[in-house]
């Protein structure tokens, strides 16, 4: 998995220590939820007993990117349709930064850690 910063990677590794890392859905959701400090600050309260319970989260996004990341994490975790394919094509609904992270989470879901290198990316918008 690629991280947008060292802080993202640190938050992600912190989250992985709290969840079942054999559950790809939880890992992928945590990857998205740890991308932004504001999301993780609120959502980490929703982890208990080695699992993520997003139904306990009362997260209020401050930006379109936060909303997109939270919705995508919720979709992954609950198999819902808060983000649809059409949304992914719309940069106003899913900004480029969120799109890149969502795509990375989907790659992880498909290929797991074996297919996802752990590295930091330097996006043009960071």
Percent in strands: 5-15%
Number of helices: 6
Instruction: Tell me the strand order in the biggest sheet.
Output: 1-4
Integer count of domains: 1
* N-C termini distance: 17 Å
Q: Could you give the count of β-strands?
A: 4
Radius of gyration: 13 Å
Largest sheet properties: 2 strands, parallel
The overall average pLDDT, rounded, is: 82
| SSE class | mainly alpha
N-to-C order of helices and strands: EHHHEEHHHE
Poorly predicted parts: 118-123
Task: Characterize the overall form.
Answer: globular
Helical residues, percent? 40-55%
Question: How would you portray this structure in words?
Answer:
The chain is built from six helices and four strands, in the order βαααββαααβ. The strands form two sheets. It has a two-stranded parallel sheet with strand order 1-4. The radius of gyration is 13 Å and the shape is globular. By secondary structure, it is mainly α. The protein has one domain (2-117).
């Amino acid at each position: 998995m690629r991280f947008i910063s060292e802080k993202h990677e640190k938050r992600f590794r912190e989250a992985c220590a709290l969840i079942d890392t054999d559950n790809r859905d939880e890992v992928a959701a945590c990857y998205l939820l740890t991308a932004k400090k504001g999301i993780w600050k609120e959502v980490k309260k929703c982890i208990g007993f080695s699992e993520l319970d997003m139904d306990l989260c009362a997260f209020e996004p401050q930006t379109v990117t936060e909303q997109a990341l939270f919705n995508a994490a919720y979709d992954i975790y609950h198999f819902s349709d808060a983000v649809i394919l059409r949304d992914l094509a719309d940069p106003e609904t899913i900004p480029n930064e969120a799109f890149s992270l969502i795509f990375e989470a989907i790659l992880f879901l498909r290929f797991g850690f074996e297919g996802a290198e752990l590295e930091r990316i330097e996006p043009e918008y960071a």
